[in-house]
User: Fold this.
Amino acid sequence: MSLSLSNQQLVPEPGSTGGAGGQQGGRAERPEGRGALSAEGGAAAAGEGAPASERRRRRSDDPITALHYQLSTTRSEANLDVVVLVDDSGCLVAGAGAWPACEELAAYAPLLANPDAVQSAAVGSRIAALTADVEVQSLAVAGGEVLLCGRGGTAERGASIARAAAGCLRILRAAA
Assistant:
């Protein structure tokens, strides 16, 4: 499965340790005025009033930005080192955490989901080391598969990953 993305601009976020879109320390985000909605007045500036009971603080009509927000919130709530969404070949779609750690987890995600496919002893030992600290969930999207992986946190990270999976599915289906 391949995903095509366009009209993206990387905007560094002060103090950020990761993001989506291919730049360390940045995040994929639409510039204000082009559909990005946030708690800092984005909804009001766009002329839309958010319900008073809205639980999400940051919103975006851009799927990659929305995925980054979802993963960033999950990472924070579950105290994860890194959380990534990857396609079935290990290509990073979105992530939150230190960029090198996102790239590493993305590369190993398909093998973490299917450890029987490992054919190298060196790769097998790295997969074995990661397995105890990683939660992997497979999601079916538009006839393909994506993997949501979180590393670190506590043993309760599975519930956070499950909530994030539901959010990622909602965002990806809305974008299809």
